[in-house]
Amino acid sequence: MLLRTALAVLLGFTSAVALADDSQPKAIPVQSAVISADKNVYSHFFRDALKGADVVAYYSLKPGEKAVKGLANITYEWGDVTWRFASRENRNLFAADPAKYVPAYGGHCAYAMSKGFEAPPRPDSWVIIDGKLYLNNNAKSFEIWERDTAGNISKANQNWLEINTAE
What we know:
By secondary structure, the chain is α+β, with helices and mostly antiparallel strands. Helix content is about 35%, strand content about 20%. The strands form three sheets. The protein has a two-stranded antiparallel sheet. The chain has a two-stranded antiparallel ribbon with strand order 3-4. Residues about 1-35 have low confidence and may be disordered.
C-alpha cells in the first residue's frame, strides 16, 4: 500500500492535476463514504496523524486559515496512530467521538482519492463540507477539487470503498 501511494504521488499525481477538466462548475456536496474511521488513517512517520495537525481545531477556523499544530505532549492513541492536539479540551473532544473529527478518507488527499489513489495531505489545504473535514495535497489539487466537490466526493467515496475493501 505504501509503495502504491508513493508511486502514485511520484508518477500520477502531477499528471492527474494537469489533465483535470477545468470547465466543471461547482456542485452541491454529498456525504463521504462510510468506512470505519479508524481504517487507513494517514500518518506521517515523525509527526503522527495528519502531520501533527490538531483535527478538532479545524472546526474553529475560518476558511483559508492555516491548520493548528498539535503538541507532542497532548496526544491520543486511536486508529493505530497518535493524534496531536493544541489543547487538552480538543483532545477530550476527539476522545469522546473520534469518528466525528477524523477527516474524510482517513486524511488522505481528497482529490487524489477522487482519481483512485492515495496521496499525503497538506494540513493547510482543507475545507469542511456537511460537518466533514476534507484535506488535499496542495493548493492546485484543492482548487481543482473544489470545482466539482459533489462529483469529486462521489468518485472519491467509490474509490475509498474499493481501496479499503480490496484483498
